[in-house]
Each structure stands twice: as structure tokens, then as C-alpha cells.
């Protein structure tokens, strides 16, 4: 990749490519003439999450390996194979596959711009103790590096802007959520009564024993509400409501230039410390399920064999539980996985 001459240039799909994207996410071509609105954004966002998976498989299998004789899959063997930014379009739209956040969200941004949405491409800091209460858990406020791309969407003559994230994976908020500087934040229910999220305007929360930065500005933290299994959420959520808020990520509302995204992509996909090369994950929301998600997960662990676990989580049936159900096991060789991904996730090879 050469250094971009225009660091904040924005990719935007033409009508033909936007039509192909609509077909990929199973929406009608009649939407091509729709003006930007919250209703349209919500429709495009949910269908995107239902059809396009978060997918780390490019990091583990070189494309040519899928076509030869079946061979064992070795994690991180395709270190530099993940497409960068909007160049993932062909993989996502024409090959019916997925990618990780620095590819999916860049491609989704170029699609949303076709409709006239104003899209900021931002980078976030992921919470490293997912599911835990940082106010009581020994990990406290355990933050990672800037390894997640996300989007903020608005449109001309509309006062509000919304977080939309097409590639978080498990516990993905599947509705746009408004950015506000109100101290109470913005709280919404997800796709069922057992999902609730809050977007808070605040400086990066830190534990009392941590040294605060010398210079700091407020950003936004996205939280997921966790309550005892079987307990539906009801708005408003107050300090007396059952459960606690667990962070997903924190971000600053500052647009990131293209070269910086290349750096973040490298650290996540091809650097020796890259985190995404350590596991295999393909996951998406099951269409029409009210938020249930089907995931394929594998990590090399001593004594656990070489099979990926495929399981369903979430949705109203789970009633707030993160436990997997409808479990299957898939041998991690290219022939078996290729057949499974073709049948169950619609991949085209």
C-alpha cells in the first residue's frame, strides 16, 4: 500500500455496487432510491449483521489452500491475507464471505455513503474483561489497544448522529444508538427484552490505582447490560435495576486517516503481536431470530483436539444467558471446513 495522497478520502459505492451489496444482504433494489433516514439506517444495519459475518478465516487459510487436497488448518498461517479496508468488497459481496472490523466496517461505510449518509470511520479501544463488572471484578477497567474500527452515521439536515458497528461479533448491538453529551447517556433495548445497551459520554474510565493521562478528552463508552439469566430489561434502567453495565469499547469522535487505519490493520492482522491470528471466529446474527447468533470458534489449546465448536447464543430463547446451545463440532481441515462454510454460512469458493 502506498501512502495516501489524500489522507481523509472516503470510499463510496456507485449504484451498481450498492445494488450488489443490497442483494448480498437480501434487501430489495428498490431501496437504491431511498433518502437517508433512521429507518433506512436501521434496516440496512440489521440486514448487514444478519448476512455478513465477522470472519477471521483469511488469517489462517491462504485462498489457494481451499482448492487443493484437504489439509489441516493451522492458525496464523496466512498472516497477511486479510483484505484491507474497502478492498474487501469483492470478498464480502461477490464471494459471500466476511472479514474483520477494519475490512467490514470500511466496506459498510462505503455502502452507506451511497445513500447520502455522512459516515465517520473511527477507532475504538476494546474492553479486555468482557462480561465482567469493572466496578467489582479484580480486573477493574482493563482496556486493550486501539484494535476496533467502528462507524458514526448522520445525514444532512438531521441533528443527531448514531453509532453503528458492523463487525463487533458476539454481543453486537444491532440497532443504531444516538450519540449524546447528556450525562445520563443513551440507553436502548436490543433485538429482544434481554438485551440492553448504553452509550455514555465520558473520559476513558480507569481504576483508582491507574495513573490518569496528563491530557485527556471525553469520548464514548458502549456498555452492555448484564442481568441474572431470565431477567428481562425494562426502561428506564436505574441503579436499582437488576444487573450491571459491562463495557464493550471506548472511542473518541475523531475521524481517522487512511494511513492510520493501515497501521491498526497491521497490528491486528500481521504484526507478531496480532491478536486476531490466535483464534478462528466466524459469527453472524441468525436472520429473523430476534438476536440469536451462530458462531464457529476454534483456538489451539492443549488437550482439546483440532475441532471447531459451532454453537448458538443469544436471542429471546437464551433469556440473557451467554451459554452456547445447538452445539456441533467441525474438524479443522480445509475440505471439511470448506463444505461446512458453503452449506451453513453461504460462502462461495
Characteristic terms for this protein:
349 residues; 6 helices; globular
Structure description:
- Belongs to the arylamine N-acetyltransferase family.
- This is Arylamine N-acetyltransferase 1.
- GO terms for molecular function: acetyltransferase activity.
- The chain is α+β, with helices and mostly antiparallel strands and 349 residues long.
- The protein has one domain: Arylamine N-acetyltransferase fold, CATH 3.30.2140.20.
- The protein has six helices and 13 strands.
- It has helices spanning 15-24, 38-51, 89-94, 101-114, 258-269, 334-345; strands spanning 54-55, 118-127, 143-154, 162-164, 177-178, 186-189, 196-202, 219-226, 244-251, 280-285, 293-298, 307-313, 325-331.
- The strands form two sheets. The protein has an eight-stranded antiparallel β-sheet.
- A hairpin with an 8-residue loop joins β11 (293-298) and β12.
- The radius of gyration is 20 Å and the shape is globular.
- The chain starts with 14 loop residues before the first helix and ends with a helix.
- The model has no long low-confidence stretch (mean pLDDT 95).
Question: In short, what is this structure?
Answer:
The chain has helices at residues 15-24, 38-51, 89-94, 101-114, 258-269, 334-345; strands spanning 54-55, 118-127, 143-154, 162-164, 177-178, 186-189, 196-202, 219-226, 244-251, 280-285, 293-298, 307-313, 325-331. It is an alpha+beta fold. It has one domain: Arylamine N-acetyltransferase fold, CATH 3.30.2140.
Mean pLDDT: 95
CATH class: Alpha Beta
From the spread of the alpha carbons, the general shape counts as: globular
- How far apart the termini lie comes to 26 Å
Instruction: Compute the number of structural domains.
Output: 1
The number of helical elements comes to 6
Reported CATH architecture: 2-Layer Sandwich
The name of the CATH topology is Arylamine N-acetyltransferase fold
Taking pLDDT < 50 over at least 5 consecutive residues as the criterion, the unreliable ranges are none
Rg result:
20 Å
Q: Quick one: how many beta strands?
A: 13
Strand content: 15-25%
Q: Percent helix among the residues? A: 10-25%
Q: What about the largest sheet?
A: 8 strands, antiparallel
Strand-pairing-aware structural class = alpha+beta
Order of helices and strands: HHEHHEEEEEEEEHEEEEH
Amino acid at each position: 500500500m502506498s501512502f495516501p495522497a489524500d489522507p481523509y478520502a472516503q470510499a463510496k459505492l456507485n449504484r451498481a455496487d450498492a445494488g450488489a451489496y443490497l442483494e448480498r444482504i437480501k434487501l430489495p433494489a428498490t431501496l437504491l432510491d431511498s433518502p437517508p433516514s433512521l429507518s433506512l439506517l436501521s434496516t440496512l444495519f440489521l440486514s448487514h449483521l444478519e448476512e455478513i459475518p465477522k470472519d477471521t478465516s483469511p488469517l489462517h487459510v491462504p485462498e489457494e489452500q481451499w482448492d487443493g487436497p484437504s489439509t489441516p488448518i493451522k492458525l496464523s498461517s496466512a498472516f497477511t491475507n486479510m483484505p484491507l479496508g474497502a478492498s474487501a468488497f469483492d470478498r464480502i459481496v461477490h464471494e459471500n464471505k466476511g472479514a474483520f472490523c477494519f475490512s467490514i466496517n470500511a466496506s459498510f461505510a462505503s455502502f452507506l455513503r451511497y445513500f447520502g449518509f455522512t459516515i465517520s470511520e473511527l477507532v475504538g479501544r476494546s474492553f479486555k474483561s468482557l462480561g465482567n463488572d469493572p466496578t467489582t471484578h479484580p480486573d477493574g477497567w482493563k482496556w486493550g489497544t486501539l484494535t476496533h474500527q467502528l462507524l458514526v452515521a448522520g445525514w444532512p439536515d438531521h441533528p443527531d448522529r448514531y453509532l453503528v458497528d458492523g463487525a463487533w461479533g458476539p454481543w453486537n448491538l444491532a440497532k443504531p444508538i444516538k450519540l449524546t453529551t447528556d450525562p445520563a447517556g443513551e440507553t436502548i433495548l436490543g433485538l429482544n427484552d434481554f438485551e440492553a445497551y448504553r452509550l455514555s459520554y465520558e473520559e476513558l474510565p480507569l481504576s483508582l490505582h491507574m495513573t490518569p493521562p496528563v491530557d485527556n478528552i471525553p469520548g464514548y463508552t458502549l456498555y452492555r447490560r448484564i442481568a441474572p439469566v431470565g431477567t428481562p430489561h425494562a426502561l428506564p434502567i436505574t441503579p436499582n435495576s437488576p444487573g450491571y453495565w459491562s463495557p464493550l469499547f471506548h472511542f473518541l469522535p475523531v475521524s481517522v486517516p487512511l494511513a492510520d487505519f493501515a497501521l491498526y490493520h497491521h497490528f491486528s492482522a500481521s504484526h507478531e503481536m496480532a491478536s486476531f491470528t490466535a483464534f478462528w471466529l466466524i459469527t453472524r446474527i441468525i436472520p429473523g431470530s430476534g438476536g440469536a447468533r451462530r458462531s464457529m470458534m476454534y483456538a489451539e489449546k492443549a488437550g482439546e483436539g483440532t475441532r471447531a465448536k459451532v454453537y448458538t447464543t443469544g436471542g429471546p430463547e437464551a433469556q440473557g444467558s451467554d451459554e452456547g446451545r445447538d452445539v456441533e463440532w467441525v474438524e479443522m481441515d480445509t475440505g471439511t471446513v470448506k463444505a461446512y462454510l458453503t452449506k451453513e454460512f453461504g460462502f462461495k469458493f
